[in-house]
Batch of 4 targets.
Target 1
Amino acid sequence: MSETVTPTEMMTIAAARALTNADICFVGIGAPSAACNLARLTHAPDITLIYESGTIATKPDVLPLSIGDGELCETALFTVSVPEMFRYWLQGGRITTGFLGGAQIDRFANLNTTVVGDYAHPKVRLPGGGGAPEIASNCGRILITMAMGTRAFVEKLPFITSMGHGEGGDHRARLGLKTKGPTAVITDLCIMEPDPLTKELTVTSIHPGVAREAVAAASGWPLKFATAVAETPAPTAEELSVLRDIQARTRHAHKAA
Amino acid sequence: MAELMPLAAAIAANVHDGDTVAYEGFTHLIPFAAAHETIRQGRRELTLIRMTPDIIYDQMIGAGCARKLKFSWGGNPGVGSLHRMRDAVENGWPQALELEEHSHAAMANAYEAGAANLPFAMLRGYIGADLPKVNPMIRTVTCPFTAEVLAAVPAIRPDVAVIHAQRADRKGNVLVEGIVGVQKEAVLAAKRSVVTVEEIVEELQPPSPNSVVLPHWTITAIAHVPGGAYPSYAFGHYQRNNAFYIAWDKIARERQSFLAWLQDNVLSGRPEDFARYARRQAAAE
């Protein structure tokens, strides 16, 4: 096994650590799915993973390419229809944690996956929100994982697909939301958490070997750093080998026609 | 009453130019063969409805079948953009595509409202999101008991729902298993429905009394098209061809490569072609 840990591996491992056995987690596809399954295969074997295709308490052996791969249904405790998924389980308030990715994020952890440019005449048409608008409001807390860069971490979003902390402060509460919203943004360089009062994302931990300047340079807004910034613990041998095993199984499975 | 007929006849009789149509399937059981037949028959000016328009609607949009898309997530799952959909939205090729965009929760609720013969659906949704600013079909309703303000969207009532299912019996009762998506709601919300199936059996034999069964009197036409969901999958029959979804990104990126693929695989194809996918997967397992 290579001892060099890639930034993406560090991101996935740090994101997995944010989850516990007690979580009932609504899983987004891509980076969130890798993190959630890594958690399940390491320190959180009893975590409940739910995909919006209706598969509940699923234990895939390879990472799904889509949100509804057969693997998810075959390994689920049970599978419900999509209306039931969104009505009873998500809107019903049964889900403790929503794990989202996005194309763009702002300092209050609002996400854009809809358009770049004007909505009616977009420069880039992105896939859209899918389940995210209601995941963001109905789950107990939200974790976000995405790679940093100035095109992704932007001063102003062209479109708010799903609300994080809105304009900051008590904006969520003013809209009647009782859920916490985003509690951490786990990137390939660092971990950010919202300031308890202003809700502005603040760097609380930097991954090993990453310079503070590099973190600041990868954000489109002037990033706030906590008074005491921790160093993210390096990946353990177990975390790395479990992650690389599932990625290898996944690559093999997705190549097979 | 469901009538068993060839796919070409089922599409010709039920899908007309200008219709509002829902080819549903949430990753699983996507009715590819029926969509290809619709493209071959040259349908135009369709309003396409689907929660997750993936490569099947990319193909229909690129082939010029659609004037409008009502949806909640339009991408190639796990791979990236739908290039034909983007070309239509960003450049108007092969024609402009009007979008009516919702969230998954709203679309799922709207199908359910359609099936329940209600005029609209309500949900606790879109809070703090921008979609209501750009989609006038997202409105609000006030609870008459608590005064809570909730999001409201119109019920989905398609002219036609088109789905793929595992099997039908001789009477035309249909069984759907696995990830069942919104297909039941789509069929019950629609005026007409076309179902393609992997197999026709003497007795439906649902594995449990709670299986998703659509009785023959809710279905207009059934066509026996083994492999008809390929390259998506049919639980219990064949797996999703993820390699093709990955390959689609390159095929669809340029107009010329897309048109060449369309000519070779759709316009020159027949519904029976899909049977080879069902056989190949079965042999490999």
Target 2
Amino acid sequence: MNNGKAIEVQDLHRHFGDIKAVQGVSFDVRQGEIFSLLGPNGAGKSTTISMLSCLLQPNAGDALVMGHSITRRPMEVKKAIGVVPQEIALYPDLTARENLAFWGKMYGLRGKTLGRRIDQVLEIIGLVEQQKRPAGKFSGGMKRRLNIGIALLHKPQVIIMDEPTVGIDPQSRRHILDNVKELNRQGMTVLYTTHYMEEAAELSDHIAIMDQGQIVASGTHDELVKIVGKQDRVELTINTESERVLPAWQAIDGVHKATATDSIITLLVDESDRVLPRLFEAAIEAKVHITSVTIQEPNLEAVFLHLTGRALRDG
Amino acid sequence: MRILDITLKDLSQIVRDWKISLFLVVMPFMFTLFFSATSAPAEADARLPVGVVNHDPDGVLSARLIETFEGSQAIRIVSLKEAEESQVDSLIEKETYAAIVIIPEGYSRQLLAGEDIRPEVIAISDRPAGHSAVTAIRGDIKRVLSAAKGAQLSAEVADSRQPFAGDAARQAYLEEGITLANAAWDNPPISTEMKAATRIDTERSQSTNPAAQSSPGMIVMFAVFGLITSATVLVAERKSQALQRMLTTPVHRWEIIAGHLLAMALVTFLQQAVLVGLGQFLLGVDYLSAPVGILLVMAALALWTASLGLLISALVKGEEQVIIWAMIAMFLFSALGGAWFPLEFAGKAFSTIGHLTPTAWAMDGFQNIVLRGGGNGSVLMPVGILMAYAAAFFGLAVWRFRFE
């Protein structure tokens, strides 16, 4: 029916007035894999998954989720997916269990089936002990876990998660990432959006990098990293504005891309051990003091910088 | 089923805060007591004023008709001077009288001779007072006509068996027959006639019970105010994006809107039920004289306020704006709609403007029963108009409804 594809996205377009939020996005997600959309804020990730969640109608293009068209069979799509929105979409005055019960009913669960499933989900998200507490009194991480739990109630074939780890402590983030991996291990297909390179790298079987409404690259982590070859990513912090030294650094042989945010400059360079002394020399000539240096081997951040000329965090 | 799930979730959120009962029940009841205490007992006759011009002053049937009018518990007759007859239209238009009855010259004689002659009734029937008055007048006229017809038939039978000695004997027989037939109406074995306004409990007259105005008034006023509770739940749901999240589940948009509308309507309906109960049993307001009519008014008012709540929720961005707009709606609709004082006391212009508001029709519905002694049928027009307002507000709310 769908050739083992859980999601087939075909040339999706969506604009808001003059703003083209998504411009011709296409990708496939195989059943049972974790697929990440990686990109800075405003890249079009959330708009894309809003269309896949049937919250937004595309202006052009279509997508099939478990073989159902998002434009022609949205109700079938909704039955097949569980959506974890970026916002904590809960009822703060209801307890965790009451929240799960209400959303379970929205997914059509009733009676003992619903009760059993709530127990299972509470176990998965680690909130069994807190199930009778109002969600409004939870910590940020616990709310995020409950937010995820709601999407698991009806055992969806595909779970769509929009930046589920935004604004939480490292411990809760770890818990959520482990949950995602465990759900995937149980056979659930996961479409995950994030602007955290590390999360995409850790979780994903496939990654699509989005920028300005388009997919600029996609593949496995290793395939993407090969795009930048052996270029290292060098991040330097200086004690003044970047304009004083950036032109000199860009002129150095071996420096390929440069981007600056305030006093932090990120460069893609060949053979960092050869280029680094020349960067220091140029800084001394420009009377700029370097306060820190970080050198990273090729990674997704470097890929993004290589493809777009901007850092992921620039948004 | 999901509609009910959404409704029950909303209700569960609303009742979770015990302070809500202050808004929904305690405050309106206290206000009812306050307004009742500060209002002087209404000494004025609450019956609808009806002008009568009698061009048949010596006629036996016109006398019976006026007697019947005087005994009415729905209308209060006022004899008009001849000079006023030329101003009939103006008197009706200004609502000086709910209706005017003109009894033509020779009415009794011609009627008894079997001719078709009828009093002229002038009223604006699409006004509640006019509608109620005409209904009552028609009933009284039918009663006199029936008595006359009965006496006539009896006289014909008697004449065929033993002819009358003369016209005087026949006339005396007829008059006695009319008197007896009319008296029989005082205790009819069965009544099939519906009257819009037929009874005022003389033992506990509602016209002298100030709560008969303040109780329905505060019910209407706080029904509007009470929508704050349910509208706030909806706005908070939209702010948290839970409303938008519902759209990712297999629930239709109309089910979501219907679920919230039902919750709002139920809150208002239950609030009214409690306040009607308190009014009936603690303040002596006679709501239960026409329970079906009261239920219809309550249901229509609940649907209209729910539609208003949905509209406010659709238009505002935050919970605090719900409170502001609900208060504006409460003051505007209560003042113009006669919740604080009877619109009849405020003059024609004010009354006309007031009846552009749904609350005026809600008040008419309640007062037709508790103040004017009307039956279930007396609320049909107010309920119909209130439902039309509910439909209009609902249409606007759906048009402007936002999920995000």
Target 3
Amino acid sequence: MTDARRLARALAALSLVLLAVGVTALFVGSAELSPSAVARALAGRAEASSVEAIVTLSLRLPRVAAAVLAGAALAVAGVGFQALTRNPLAEPSVLGVSSGAAFGVVLAQILGLSSGIVAALGAAVFAFAGALLAATIVYLVATAPGGLAVQTLLLTGVIVGIFFSAAITVIISVVDFNRLTGVIHWLLGNLGPIPAASLALFAVLAGAGVWLILKSARELNLLALGEEASRQLGVDAERLKRRVFVAAALLTGTVVAFTGPIGFVGLIVPHVLRRLVGQDNRFLVPTAALAGGAFLLAADTLARNVVAPAELSVGVITAFCGAPFFVWILRTRSRPL
Amino acid sequence: MDPAHAEPAALTPLVQFRDVAFAYARPARGRERTFAFPGLSFTVERGEIFGVIGPNSAGKTSLLRLLTRVLRPQRGEIRLAGRPVGDLAPWALAREVAMVPQEAPRPFPFTVEQLVLMGRYPHAPGRFFEDAADITAARAAMAATETLALAPLPLEQLSGGERQRALLARALAQEPRLLVLDEPTAHLDLRYQAETAALLRGLNRERGMTILLVSHDLNLAAELCDRLLLLSAGEVARVGAAVDVLEQGLLESVFGCHVTVDKSPSGRPVVQLAYERG
């Protein structure tokens, strides 16, 4: 079987999984709607002001879309950072990039950007800048001349994350609390309903980031052999690194701007996929987009229902899965990182 | 040979180093002094096997890095078939020059086949998946290095010698005009040393492939190479046929130890450490 066929088959299988999770997410929730009522709303045969129409079309559907977009973006960002750093434990939250993006969003909020699409775009821009700043710091520190051990990268990421979290805390303490409504909830990673226009912007930005990394997938395989080897095989390594770096920061910043920092998706999803489809980034990137979407959607559906009628933040669920997972990877790898 | 390689018996040497000067900005890890080429000139002719020998930190690996443009000279010029390597796009250079490193770092366990297929990248950098021609070329390269049976195995599971041959297969998949090897037999036992030497000689004779290799093994270099370049602290101590380069007095002054030089049955020089005089 050719590679293209193998990939098509994997993507088809994952699409089915995503579809199944999506249907489940639409049909379950704290508002006890019968499946037939949900189906009626989805088919457009319910009155616009009816409970089933509002819950299904204005609450659940946008939330499903946001979860899929965020999960896809985070998983692909994880693959990108892992290839870039040649470290299978690298991902946006571990590297502190999410915290940098969150700092950007909080900053945008106290600067008082108005509501609506302008605010969404402003938050995305600030989050992207914050993500880029944090990623650059981690990268510069961890790749200082002399060649540092790979764990240094992870430690640096943790430190940078702590630094930006502290900076956020300072802002929260100093600024009038009323101007930061919802920040705490948002900081935990929260998939609230997003207006349609913002959702479209989310999709465009996430799509651009995924496309940039997907397009670089073959070259990222060569980069895994080391920078020198990749150059000797004809890769323009500097340009490749810049492109993937910016794309991964864009994905992280976008997710943080629209849903808050959700951790560990970029760690769990690519790691499971490496076992299923192998190390080839041409398989990892597109499958991570679908599997990441399905994973975060499942986590969010759980978050909505496990303590209903209250709600957990989805970030709590991913952290509960991710932290033990991180330790497990660390302990079961046969070779030292 | 494909037509691009069959230029009108071009008279320019394949590789020309012209007064190449290079110094590291800061000393490499664990090294005390800053190493430099003050101004290195030599040529590699088409179709020859050219060996670079010399003590540790004489600049052998730096020479390979300059040739493959991982490093850029601060002065002087390196030409490949008459064209400055600085003018070539990265993939264009990789179609001409293939490097077999000593060891590949391997954080992600790619399979042998995936590794070898990576050698096809410079032939179509824009392609997402390799096509049938790429796969044919990769399989031919694996057949030539006897790694076909290893194709589905992750690199982690190979022995040092097997990994070395997989890296050689990757280089052959590049279908280069110049094959560059850094310590090609360092990880190999005697049998694979002999087989690698035979394979390189075959590639040279049957496909007319020019080979440049760096080696610590003076006797292998003497046996295999048409010409040798003895490097000493970044400068050419001597270049020429093995009998002219592997001379007792010269080797003793460059390596700083006592040696004896005998003749092998094939008439090539054989260098041995003279322990009793140490």
Target 4
Amino acid sequence: MTEYIGEHLWAGQLGHALAVISLVGALLATSGYFHGTRTGQVEWTRLGRLGFRLHSIAVLGIVVTLFVMLFNHWFEYDYVWKHSNLAMPMKYIASCFWEGQEGSFLLWTFWHVVLGNILMWRAKDWEGPVMTVFATVQVFLAIMILGVYIGDVRIGSSPFLLIRELPENLGLPWTGMANYLGAIPQFADGRGLNPLLQNYWMVIHPPTLFLGFASTLVPFAYALAGLWRKDRTGWIAPALPWTFFGIMILGTGILMGGAWAYEALSFGGFWAWDPVENASLVPWITLVAAGHLMIVNKRKPTALFSLFLLTLFTFILVLYSTFLTRSGVLGDTSVHSFTGDGMLPGLLLFLLFYIGLSVMMLLTDMGQRRFYAVISTILLGIGVGLQVQVPAILLFGAVSIGVLVSAYRQGFASKEPEESLWSREFWLFIGSLVLLLSAMQITFSTSVPVFNLLLEPFDKVFGWIGDTTGSSFFKGLADAKLAPPGEAIAHYNKWQIPFAFIVTFLIAFGQYLRWKDTDMKKFRKQLAVSFLVAIGITALGVYLLKYTWSELTLIALFFATTFAIIANAWYIPSVLKGRLKSAGASVAHVGFGLVLLGALISTSRQEEVSRNTRNMDLRFLNEGFSNSEDILLYRGDTVRMGDHYVHYTSKRQTGVNLYYDMDYFAAVPRSYATGDTVRVGDMLFEAKEAHTAGRYFLEDQPKHWTPLERFSRRELWHTEDWSSSAPGERLFGLAPFVQLNPRFGNVAEPSTKHWLQRDLYTHVRYADLALASDTADDTWMPDRLYDKHVGDSIITPTAMAIIDSVYIMRDSVTLRMLGDQYTVYAAQLRVRDLYRPDRWFEARPLVIYANGEPVMGKSAELEPLRIRYSLATVTTDQGPTMGHGGPIPATGGPRIAVGINVAESEFLVMQAIVFPGINILWIGCVLLFIGTFMAVWQRVR
Amino acid sequence: MKRSHIIAIVIIAVAVGALIGSLYDSSTYADLDQALEHPGKEYHVVGTLDRSQEIVYEPSLNASLTTFTMRDLNGKTCKVHLAKAKPQDFERSERLVLIGEANENGEFEARDMLMKCPSKYNEENKVTG
């Protein structure tokens, strides 16, 4: 055995030991609580408590150990090396902790431990069965953190592995070196946290989101406990505040993710229907549905089966989301999904176990439960044994659905008369089902990569259907190469806008309905005002935001959200008589309406103001791409963009960030004085009188301008175009920046100007990253070298230069100053402006040769074209010309080759989007949070 | 018929509709041969950047057009017009997923691109000594 130098082995060993203890503790807790619940013997329950406490301490120990390792930069550990480095500020240690798979599992486990301990303390007689479920979940999570091998299959992954112990490194020569840590430079510093994640969002977003995920376990555990104890309604009351707590935290986590994307990432929006975003949204939707059904069923059990289904489903969806985003099945479809790393088998097992357990518990009969459990185990066992996992899972799914249906018919089908059509419970029930549908649609579309796996066994069937019916749809299914919808946002919006419409409409009137039955006359009277006001506001909105009839679905949603906001706000004074204690639901509903309204307005009326402002002729290009959405700004340039003029002032570096300072000026009407000349097309006009320009030249022309009859070409070139506006006073500055990171790639981060009613969001798409310190001059883009002959032309995007001649300068001053060994060459260029093809310029760059080598040169800048030509080399085909005298003939004799460097004035490419009404969304978020908190508070008390 | 039955039927109908809808709207992973055979049909094409060919990005002409050559997993190459600014570190990308369609000229017009750059991590993971 080699004695390695400089390793801190005790930390890893301690971590492993604690992971084992946490697993043992979770197993003890499971069996203790299980038998305690079954037999009612207090000794068993005590053992369960002991086990869970042991587990809790071990998990806390693991967390502390990992923090210590990160804090001390022990880079011999893979997790530390991968997720931290020396340069990183200490405040981001927490972000390193949960950046990776293992750390985020640990975070999830940690929250379960916290919630579990609260339940041990508060759950009273529900403690036994609820904690049994908790403990089983902790067993799975402990295994995932421990990282065990079952045969060749790795389940989970440990954060305490040394780099030299990684399977891919085993047996490499360096792992035998005792001093490898000191000898190999890579170990001196870690890879570091992706700069994209070095901000406070990464500190607060994951813990919130994971607390949200963790809190879905509480209602799940209560529901299973209720089924287990055959107390189908008693669990609802204690689970209810937890459910709304989960709604609040998970909702906050999701919206934080949106705010992060909007504020600090250059996605160009706050929601993109990315699989990872969907994975957190779907459980929230079903949790909301479950929470509302709990309210219904707590009063009188009318939709118990749906309630159980939704509650159990929510946690299963959390597991499914984890499976989707962490097992690697999403593969290429998401920007920010994790790669597999051997998580798939463990996560799949985790998921299938809880699906099976949920279905089993919904059966009422003990014998049937056993039968289902045995059948499922055999099916999946055969699947694994014979390597036919997919058909086995499908068969398991089919059996489970069958069992679900029979469980409903045996144990839940109601024999009571149905509730009244105009009762609150009925419409709450409908609303919950719509939410379930919405969640299912998102799940289906996010799961497209999973369908490929599931459809594989049916290749032949679908192929046969496709061939016989000629349907390309089925042929596509047979290929099993489905990719997510190309137009993802359009696809999801198409489905989700109608769902959102129904849900918000229900929110609007739901609270005005009474339990059991409603006096419809009173109901109509109470709602009439809100309804009319909503119609009025919608009409105003349609007018102001210019919605057209083709956007009917958007108008409908606009109306429904406004109606929901007003009706719920009005509910507080009119029905609750201002009793704020019970106003939680109304406030939350107003918030939800505002979130949707803000999202609707800002996304449907977002305007890419950077689009098409330069009116550049895109002749050289493919027709399809003429619609450029980005703006190009030269340094020092002032360009009209939306309601402003934007001026690219300077760039500067602070730390790893390269800032591009932009100044924004008001656009004011341009004033012309008598005698001013302007160019319009190929004509020149002279102002008859001093005036302020109108919107269009054609309107102004008869009154204010006389065309000039005679003018030279030169005058035409040098006269400015007519414009209606001019930059006025400076209003504000923005500094979008690029975070420089050679290891992970540079990241552009946006800069946003916030107003009350809209935001201007800008980020750099493309820019020169050189600074004045790197090169002599940063006001030019990098040179591009063209090797040409005399008579050739150089075509760059904005200009065409014809190399007329190359000659040796022999005037006396040059000769006297330099002496004999120097030769000065000059290239005579004629340059044509490609944007105004009648405009020609001349340029004469020089290069000085000494002893056959170029020593220095003088470039020629053409300011109007923002271009610079430098002569780099002059050679004949036989070698460097060393002749003396006169112009070198372009034809006859050896051909003259020149190397000419062309540089453009420094520029950057920026995208700018105006989001109107986005503050409505953020206000909604805050109200949603406050309202849910009020509701939780009221129920806890 | 009871009201709950009607609701159940509506729910099942919408759920089936959503399932088929998501399958129907879904795009298809394809190789270049297949994409070029069906111009105008949208595909996801997985491949790599052909580094031997020039990457053309002329922001002063069009800030949202990058032209390059991609090689699909079968080794076939094709010229690609991507309607986006040239991504940071494009040259270092290891794997590309292009979303778009072929045009009549046998070129691929990509609306969007997902890019993965794991190579920069792996290079450093391969510690040799």
